[in-house]
Design a protein that fits this description.
Length: 249
């Protein structure tokens, strides 16, 4: 279904030349009753991004792959488009997900700003600390939880205009992969809310980012005393954030 003047469009990040994925997604979405469109994935850093090689080397022990840089730029470009067009709310998907379109229809009709939810994950790759903040959200037995830590993944999320603005500021300098940066609620202050159970699931296909990032060894900058101290400080901030979330703050 092509996008129209919906108050909550669905954009699907996809490589322009990956016809197999686009066809597969389109087939699965043929009965979707919400407007959606493909958003052409970026392959290079977009205007507005600064790539900090030294910070990336310290944080990851290597440089980001071309696929990781493209993924970072693609999500950043979606937020830029939201701000440029004044889009109040958007659902962002990647093209390798299987979607519960009936639930997304309800989510599209929900003003997240009125619920004080600027950013809402629809999927996470890794279990992490969480606390239920709202039960029976839009349907019985569907909860909103707040995550603290590194759940990883950018397969799908809903985001408001305010959330897009805050992420544009928090992610303008590339220091780590985009999901890693978005997860850092203890740093940038954007709460890492998520739906449980998740209304989307990742399809079992090879990653478009590539797997070479998992085989590279970590360089000396990652193991330097300065960076070990930085990771220790991060762990203390994560612990403090968990205590804050448990107390309801």
């Amino acid at each position: 279904m092509a996008e129209n003047a919906s108050p909550c469009p669905v954009v699907v990040i996809s490589m322009t030349d990956d016809h197999r994925r686009r066809n597969a997604f389109s087939t699965r979405a043929r009965d979707a009753k919400v407007p959606w469109r493909f958003f052409d994935a970026r392959t290079e850093l977009v205007d507005g991004l600064i790539y900090d090689e030294q910070a990336v080397e310290r944080n990851k022990g290597r440089q980001l792959t071309k696929g990781e840089r493209g993924c970072y730029s693609s999500h950043f470009a979606v937020w830029q488009e939201m701000v440029r067009n004044g889009t109040r709310q958007c659902i962002v998907l990647e093209d390798d997900v299987i979607v519960d379109w009936a639930f997304l229809e309800q989510l599209c009709a929900t003003d997240l700003e009125t619920h004080s939810i600027p950013y809402l994950r629809l999927y996470a790759k890794v279990p992490t600390f969480n606390r239920v903040v709202r039960r029976n959200f839009l349907q019985h037995s569907r909860s909103v939880v707040e995550l603290v830590g590194h759940p990883y993944g950018t397969q799908g999320y809903a985001i408001t205009l305010e959330g897009a603005r805050r992420f544009l500021e928090a992610c303008a300098t590339v220091r780590r992969p985009i999901d890693d940066q978005m997860d850092r609620s203890w740093d940038h202050g954007v709460r890492n809310y998520a739906l449980f159970p998740a209304p989307i699931v990742e399809e079992f296909v090879p990653s478009g980012i590539g797997t070479e990032r998992f085989s590279a060894g970590r360089g000396a900058a990652y193991h330097a005393p300065r960076q070990r101290l930085a990771r220790w400080i991060d762990r203390q901030r994560i612990r403090a954030k968990k205590l804050s979330v448990l107390s309801g703050n």
